Amino acid sequence: MYIYLNAVFVGLLLLSNVLSVKLFQMGSFVLPAAAIVYVITYLMMDVIGEVYGKKAARKTIQAGFFTQIIAMIFIYIAIQLPPAADFQSQAAFEEIFNGSFRVILASLVSYFVSQNLGVTIFHGLKHRHGRKKLWLRNSLSTMTSQLIDTILFITIAFWGIVPTTVLLGMIVSQYIWKFIVAVMDTPFAYLLVRLARKHEEKNQAELLEAS
Length: 211
Known about the structure:
The longest helix has about 40 residues, at about 90-130. The protein has helices at about 1-20, 40-50, 55-80, 90-130, 135-160, 165-185, 185-210; strands at about 25, 30. A hairpin with a 2-residue loop joins β1 and β2 (about 30). It has a single domain (about 1-85, about 90-210), classed as Orthogonal Bundle (Arp2/3 complex 21 kDa subunit ARPC3), CATH 1.10.1760. Helix content is about 80%, strand content about 5%. By secondary structure, the protein is mainly α. It is globular. It starts with a helix and ends with a helix. This is Probable queuosine precursor transporter. Keywords: Cell membrane, Membrane, Transmembrane, Transmembrane helix, Transport. One of its GO terms (molecular function) is transmembrane transporter activity. It comes from Oceanobacillus sojae. It is a multi-pass membrane protein.
């Protein structure tokens, strides 16, 4: 189960870097398209930390960090490759993926700071409460780390691209969105933790039988 949670985490992380290039509007909210994806990575991180521990959560953060660096390198190489004569979309390709390059840089900084902060808060509360009050550590760690993530990411990714008023509006609207999701994802955290623990208990039982 651990490997699948890691795969979902890293996959959504990379996908969010590409989707962040597009901005969409929902009522008065202006959000990067990644807002519908990236928030789920915090849920995955909480589940990994709850079931597999703080060290496993840190390793997942490191895996995501290095994967983003590798993605950034290959995006740069892909942009520099000479386009084929029949390929007429080089300008559009560069426009989209150059944006992704800056977004990945912003993501690296905000991701590393916020995810590590989230793990620290989550496990500080877990040390105090044990297995009880998962809803509290899930909510508090996500809400706090997402605030830092939002400020850093939006500022680095979009400073100079959109007016300052739009920038501030994006920070506020994106954090409100993330705050709502942090409240709503708690039942899913309980469900995934239960499934992961059941899966690990089954694996342990099979190992004991095999020995």
